[in-house]
Design a protein that fits this description.
The complex is a heterodimer of chains A (310) and B (249).
Chain A lengths: L1 H16 L8 E4 L2 E4 L17 E6 L2 E5 L5 H14 L4 E5 L5 H4 L10 E4 H22 L13 E3 L2 E5 L2 E8 L6 E6 L4 E9 L12 H12 L5 E6 L7 H23 L3 H5 L13 H20 L1 E2 L5
Parallel strand pairs in A: 4-5, 5-6, 6-7, 11-12
Antiparallel strand pairs in A: 1-2, 2-3, 3-4, 8-9, 9-10, 10-11
Chain B lengths: L2 H9 L1 H6 E2 L9 H9 L4 E4 L3 E3 L3 E2 L5 E6 L7 E8 L6 E7 L3 E9 L5 E9 L4 E10 L16 H4 L3 E7 L4 E7 L16 E7 L5 E7 L8 E6 L5 E7 L4 E6 L1
Parallel strand pairs in B: 2-10, 4-10
Antiparallel strand pairs in B: 1-2, 3-5, 5-8, 6-7, 6-9, 7-14, 8-15, 9-10, 11-12, 12-15, 13-14, 13-16, 16-17
Classes of the chains: A alpha/beta (310), B mainly beta (249).
The structure holds zinc ion (ZN).
């Protein structure tokens, strides 16, 4: 039995060494670097690199925004930063508790990791099961990954690092605790997962679509000139906001109409997706998930008490 | 192949287009369930029995399932559904009478990726079997109860939310019943679930009989399509003898 195990280990080691995220930082604004992930779903082929992470090289040191899906990603991100600048990483900001944004924290244990207090609470409550689920989907890439909680509770307001004044916003639409960051020096707006672009948004922890729409209003009103969404390409125009509003509005109406017509969940999941969302990756998959997350609230809101025994 | 079935396949050609002998889903359990639940009775795999579920379970404790046997309207005696790889496979035994369409929607728990089946017994004695495959991360049957984690849940036991939704020729009746549907697989909690239901129309005439099994999710969600005029009554009983009654105007 033991030799079989050894054989397996021997066979899997070279494969493990091939698991390279090949992160290529791209300069998107002054001092500002993006690591753009794919708009696909978590898969063994991409190691969970479906997310955008970024870093800002300030005079005082480097600020990292989100650490990626795994320990291996976090380490690769750190190496990628070192390729660009000799300055030390001095601050990590986590936009929200989802595993693709926060499971690279292990590589930044020596740095203050800041997040909203509720993000840390959610990561504490759900981190292990979220990580387990990611293991199931991306496999070996996750090896050695453990949840590391943020060490610093962020308050909304301005955080100054070097010459960069970072305006921190505490919002709620995607997970109940969503940090958005506007770099007031460059006008780059890091939206976290409050904005998905060309990739269907995800709703497993959303407090509701109305809150999300309100957050989009708040974000769009900021003096930004470049949007870095949590997933999908950066944009210098308001197109990501328009797409988000359109999709959220459609989803809300679909669920509302479904509840009013007495549609069952299985029927709603098969609803046609409008042609105008054809370019949005994974919309059928995420609709299936969103109906499961959100529809029970819509159903209950319009049902009547019918029991006669009480 | 059973002689009677061969005869039907030979004589009734249109059937051949829908009914196949080859199992449409990969399964090692079909023969077992055919014997266990259908007593080896004649059957066909039949695409006209639509078993509609998402391709994967986003929440393995609340998987939506729609069983549509309207292609056999007027000839359906019984509809049996199960999840082959569940520790407790049986889901529902539904017997729609005159005035209720052979259609049903509900939510179930699954423990792992599994073939799902809905077997529809028609009045000629043949089971028409609809199939689907669903993927799942798993654990839906052994997850701790959400209902029981809510303080004071006992006070809400048997509360029914729902409504009637006109659909032209018929009306959709939906209900959601507050009940933990304990399946006995979560440690320390014995089986406690709604096991029987009856839909009644005017003059208390029975419109459908319903047997539920613990694969049905907590706070069961049920939907029926009813041609008979309202009001409709739903009478439910659990395995502890509690009775719940709902009136759908
Ligand atoms: Zn997210």
């Amino acid at each position: 039995m033991r030799w079989i195990l050894l054989l397996c280990l021997g066979l899997s080691l070279p494969a493990l060494a091939d698991l390279d995220y090949a992160l290529k930082p791209r300069l998107i604004a002054a001092d500002t670097w993006l690591l753009e992930g794919s708009t696909d779903n978590f898969a063994k082929a991409n190691g969970g690199n479906i997310v955008n992470t970024a870093f800002i090289v300030t005079e005082a040191g480097v600020v990292v925004i989100d650490t990626g899906p795994s320990r291996r990603y976090g380490e690769a991100l750190r190496q990628a930063i070192a390729q660009v600048t000799p300055r030390p990483v001095i601050q990590v900001l986590i936009t929200h508790h989802h595993p693709d944004h926060a499971l690279g924290n292990q590589a930044f244990k020596d740095v203050p990791i800041g997040a909203l207090a509720d993000t840390t609470r959610l990561l504490h409550e759900q981190g292990d099961s979220l990580a387990e689920n990611l293991y199931r989907m991306v496999g070996d890439w996750m090896r050695g990954t453990e949840v590391v909680l943020p060490t610093q509770a962020l308050q909304p307001g301005v955080l100054s690092v070097g010459q960069h004044d970072l305006r921190l916003l505490a919002l709620t639409g995607h997970t109940g605790a969503d940090l958005a960051i506007l770099d007031q020096r460059t006008g780059v707006l890091f939206t976290g997962d409050l904005v998905f672009y060309q990739r269907a948004l995800t709703t497993p922890h959303s407090p509701g679509l109305a809150a999300w729409q309100a957050d989009l209003d708040t974000l769009q009103a900021l003096p930004w000139n470049l949007i870095v969404p949590g997933h999908g390409p950066v944009a210098a125009d308001a197109q990501p906001f328009a797409q988000m509003r359109d999709y959220l509005g459609w989803l809300d109406q679909l669920l509302r109409d479904g509840a009013a017509n007495g549609s069952d969940m299985a029927e709603l999941i098969r609803s046609p997706i409008p042609e105008r969302f054809a370019a949005i990756n994974l919309s059928r998959y995420e609709l299936t998930r969103s109906v499961s997350h959100l529809y029970p609230r819509y159903e209950r809101a319009q049902m009547q008490r019918l029991d006669t025994r009480y | 192949m059973n002689w009677r079935l061969s005869c039907i396949l030979a004589c009734w050609l249109p059937l051949a287009a829908h009914a196949v002998e080859v199992d449409p889903v990969p399964s090692v359990m079909w023969a077992f369930y055919h014997k266990q639940l259908l007593a080896d009775a004649p059957f066909v795999f039949d695409a006209r029995v639509k078993l509609l579920a998402p391709p994967f379970a986003e929440d393995a404790r609340q998987v939506p399932l729609e069983i549509d046997a309207r292609a056999f309207k007027g000839h359906v005696v019984r509809i049996l559904a199960w999840a082959e790889l569940n520790p407790l496979p049986k889901i529902v035994d539904f017997q729609p009478k005159e005035g209720v369409l052979p259609w049903l929607a509900l939510r179930i728990r699954i423990e792992q990726a599994t073939p799902l089946r809905a077997a529809v017994l028609t009045d000629d004695g043949i089971w028409h079997v609809g199939s689907a495959l669903i993927d799942a991360a798993g654990g839906g049957c052994t997850a701790p109860s959400v209902v029981r984690s809510q303080p004071g849940w006992e006070e809400h036991l048997g509360e029914v939310l729902g409504g009637r939704y006109p659909r032209g020729e018929f009306s959709r009746v939906r209900v959601q019943v507050a009940h933990p549907m304990d399946n006995g697989l979560v440690s320390g909690i014995p089986e406690f679930f709604i096991n029987h239901g009856q839909l009644r129309g005017q003059d208390d005439q029975v419109l459908a009989e319903l047997e539920l099994f613990p694969a049905v999710s907590e706070n069961p969600n049920l939907a029926f399509d009813i041609e008979a005029p309202g009001p409709t009554r739903l009478v439910l009983r659990d395995n502890s003898g509690n009775e719940f009654d709902a009136a759908i105007p």
